[in-house]
């Protein structure tokens, strides 16, 4: 009876996942009062897999565009196409992630919020008029986009394989998602990504400092300079401190096991 009582809460929670849920504020504003609850485990998992493919394919396209625009072409209207693609990509991610969260995905906190910040940053970059200040920052931004897309492709590939193995072992949920950062379940075999992640975080800080300095120039009249600097500072702060907190928590959780082995 005690064993059966332990399994009851899990069974009720699984049943609750298939009941219609009220949409959150964001989905309510975007989609209205539409039921987004998927009615089977297979359809939920299929939607999650489609989300992962969408993110990987678009990241690869952004990588290709950033490479071409950085090395071969230099036209403002082509840069605008890249920025518009970034706005559409991040906005679509936020909608899809909200639907996945409504269907049981456990992505939360900063990993959700930073997509809203990235969408806003891309929109501000899209409205930045062509001029001397934009041209000064252009190559730095394209190089940053190229590097970020490359690291995200690596993360999508390795995190997908890691999640597949952990799901097969019953250690992760079927609706867990890849993220643009470091989480505790990535520790084995993926710590080599940490230097790439921290380098990207500090590049965001460098972008922020560069833009703040640019905003102090006498000929700086574009509001986009200061706003982009603030966005990059928010991205750096969230990414850096979240990654440090996850690594610290993981190290602390491993230390008791190591000490017990020594005893």
Descriptive overview:
- The chain is mainly α and 263 residues long.
- The chain is built from nine helices and no strands.
- It has helices at 2-16, 25-31, 41-71, 76-102, 110-127, 132-168, 187-190, 193-215, 223-262.
- Helix 3 (41-71) runs antiparallel to helix 6 (132-168).
- The mean pLDDT is 80.
What's the structural blueprint in terms of helices and strands?
Layout lengths: L1 H15 L8 H7 L9 H31 L4 H27 L7 H18 L4 H37 L18 H4 L2 H23 L7 H40 L1
Helix pairs in contact: 3-4, 3-6, 4-5, 5-9, 6-8, 8-9
Q: What is the β-strand count?
A: 0
Number of helices: 9
Assign an overall shape.
Answer: globular
Largest β-sheet summary: none
Helix content: over 70%
What is the chain-wise order of helices and strands?
HHHHHHHHH
Q: Which residue ranges are poorly predicted, with pLDDT under 50 across at least 5 consecutive positions?
A: none
What descriptors fit this protein?
mainly alpha, 0% strand, 263 residues
Compact overview of the structure:
This protein is mainly alpha-helical and 263 residues long.
